[in-house]
């Protein structure tokens, strides 16, 4: 402390608190720019791992410079320029990729405000979004299905291997190995980082749709952390979905996915109470639902019908979301239609998670004992062994059946499996409500 009792200033005259605040601001900016930065760098260096390293170097440079100089007017351009400088230095040391050095160095040394625009323009692909270019590259046919999905969730959504493992119902070590192998395959295969055209684009579209929805799902029900919802992930997924619809306007499943995400996102404001705890569909204030997003979602479903895609995987899920969107109150929900839609979805997309959701719909339509019977068919499924929604659903069915002691145990087990603080608190409150 100084003689007047003030905290000593750091070099540049800033206090410890100010320095820490600046660091937090810089990291927040980096999170917003991270994907575009990696995508742009990957197109030049042809290596996702190297692009990640260069982006991280740029962050460290910003943490060292911006507290002294202030945040630049174009922070994204500053980070890109700095990362490219590091790339040039690396190429010089390794004497690699000499044909790129002169052009990139010229862009950097120009030092004019329009230099950043030139760099970004050069990075833009035919549809003007590097992130989508990176997704299509990560969904290259050289990669297996699991490798494509894991890599894109890691790079685009910034998820940890733990979060991706939850989405896959898989082991963390398995996911980590998939990501490492996928990066190596793309690097060794000299794959171009671009949005493909024609039949090649159509062949990758299914994987791209799946990845975008997984990004949305992680935002809609965060697997880790304090918050139930991570809206920035959902917004990014919907933004990419809208770009895809513009890219493939006659693709019914692209419209269906966007419709599904908009209908789900319409409930954001009502999903969490004032105390931060999750609220079920039954207890949500539907007056808080976003009517504009619902209108957009229903309009998207109408487009799906016009295109003849009602039986698509995303179309069926969007139709399920629309069942709730159309119900003015919980008691108006058409559970029989929901159960029928889940029957069709399970035929199209056989999976333990779909079977679990189907059991919930049937329990609401035909009674909790029906739901319990359907759960018995999937309780031994190994992939659901650590999946919190399974005991949570069982607890709900047991509670509705009046079997309170068993319900309490099921909710407590679900809470123990959950890695999200808000979800865990909600499940414990349900256990306590069982007496």
From TrEMBL:
It comes from the Bacteria. InterPro entries: DUF6596, RNA_pol_sigma-70_dom, RNA_pol_sigma70_r2, RNA_pol_sigma70_r4_t2, RNA_pol_sigma_r2, RNA_pol_sigma_r3/r4-like, WH-like_DNA-bd_sf. Pfam families: DUF6596, Sigma70_r2, Sigma70_r4_2. Residues 136-185 form the RNA polymerase sigma factor 70 region 4 type domain. Residues 204-302 form the DUF6596 domain. Residues 1-20 are annotated as: Disordered. Residues 36-95 form the RNA polymerase sigma-70 region domain. This is RNA polymerase subunit sigma-24. The lineage of its organism: Bacteria, Pseudomonadati, Pseudomonadota, Alphaproteobacteria, Hyphomicrobiales.
